[in-house]
Amino acid sequence: MTSDQRKIIFASSLGTVFEWYDFYLYGSLATVVGKQFFSGVNETAAFIFALLAFAAGFAVRPFGALVFGRLGDLVGRKYTFLVTILLMGASTFLVGVLPSYASIGITAPVMLIALRLVQGLALGGEYGGAATYVAEHAPATKRGGYTAWIQTTATLGFFLSLLVILGTRLTAGESAFADWAWRIPFVFSIVLVSISVWIRLTLSESPVFLKMKAENATSKAPIREAFGEWKNVRLVLIALFGVVAGQAVIWYAGQFYALFFLTQTLKVNPVTANLLIAAALLIGTPMIVLFGALSDRVGRKPVILSGFLLAIVLYFPIFHGLTMFGNPALYAAQEKAPVTVVADPSTCSFQFNPVGTSSFTNSCDLAKSFLAKSGVNYSNQVAPAGSVAYIKVGDERIESVDTAKLDKTLGAQKIKDFETKLGFVIKSVGYPTSSDPKLINYPMVLLLLVGLVLTVAMVYGPIAATLVELFPTRIRYTAMSLPYHIGNGWFGGFLPTTAFALVAATGNIYAGVWYPVVIAAISLVIGFFFLPETRLRTIDD
């Protein structure tokens, strides 16, 4: 690899590091940011603003893929992803200096949402630009290995955000951090942006794009050509359902759902769970480059489809193993203390709530939700129509509550009393309230998490090269960006809430694993029959 090629990869990847740095910042500091920008408004308005601030950045990413994908195919790769990094950086930096609700009132959350929208649009164009730019500079025999470096940036962004947040907390103290120092990690982003912009300004335009421009072969209407002609629409659909959807659910399952499962279901201490995930990512991240390089030798399709197949075969055993080694007491209780929810099926909802808008107040939903969050397996038994649900734990019967017609204060107290009683009963038969750190088999939990990251690496390492090679040069930026952001935003982003809804509906704490397994199976089948092998394709036509 030449020095110029290293600079191209570094400059392109840095923007994606920044993307994930920002993602983890918002996730880690959501509570603090919420208190700063949504305090003082009435409850309904606060809820709407909180929802918009969370969802806005993700909702507009596919539109950003269209806007900046079109720009990249019209005017060039270099200038387009220079614009995206500037918009991303400015938006995140401005969050760090944005006055709070206490200072400027309702304008504060409105401006926060506006910044998130701008940032989401820019992010929609960042990945496609980085992948396209690196691939079009890479030697034909090394595109998989070179573009795989972009895929490692999620881990780097994760670690960088942890270091900056932790360093700021320790330096400023918790009181100052909650008051004003939370802004420092956002303001610090200007350092990343400055370095990235400076390096990107020194880069030359993609030679593939320059050749196409010199031949006057650029597309005059990339969006219409990409999504208005069946031959290209077919490739977009194959990319979405045969590659990206499966990659997205495996990626989210291997990192975010694994963390959710450890903390929420197995009740592992959050610090311990985060350290275990971080260690697994640290071990597994080099495998992303390894599998990207392997795809240069054996092909993109065999590596990606093998990752899908491995996930389908291993995910249930891995999550069972996480319970066995991460919370042995819970694993034992599931075997010896059966629990049954007796309810009228017509009153039980499928608790799919991706953005927090729904409220589940009937007796069946309250019972199932508490048991699901407590990591308790249960069976379902039909009760007479209209009856209030109850839970059987051995010979004990615990009546649930229905708060739909009660005022909020009384309803909240009823729920608290019910959960306190049920919690006491399930604890008395062996279900632990938390995982005992002394009983955790840390090497085995880490090994299982590395197994999850292995499947991530197999599907994630070659995907950038695959998407670049799948589409013609004249519409590449536009055509690859949209399925990537739809796949990761919708299929991947809905994984935690879909998984929880499946657990609550079935009573099986492992039922949520069906979501990534089924989506991966769909991608395996579609990819096997319809995804072409792209490794030997030229990308300058």
Brief digest:
By secondary structure, this protein is mainly alpha-helical.
Describe this structure in words.
The chain has 541 residues and is mainly alpha-helical. It has 3 domains: 1-218, Growth Hormone, Chain: A; 222-327 and 435-531, Growth Hormone, Chain: A, CATH 1.20.1250.20; 332-428, Glutaredoxin, CATH 3.40.30. It is built from 24 helices and 4 strands. It has a 4-stranded mixed β-sheet, with helices on one face. Strand 3 (390-393) and strand 4 form a beta hairpin. Helix 14 packs antiparallel against helix 20 (442-460) and helix 16 packs antiparallel against helix 20 (442-460). It is globular, with a radius of gyration of 25 Å. Pfam families: Sugar_tr (PF00083). It is found in: Cell membrane. InterPro entries: MFS_dom, MFS_sugar_transport-like, MFS_trans_sf, Sugar_transporter_CS.
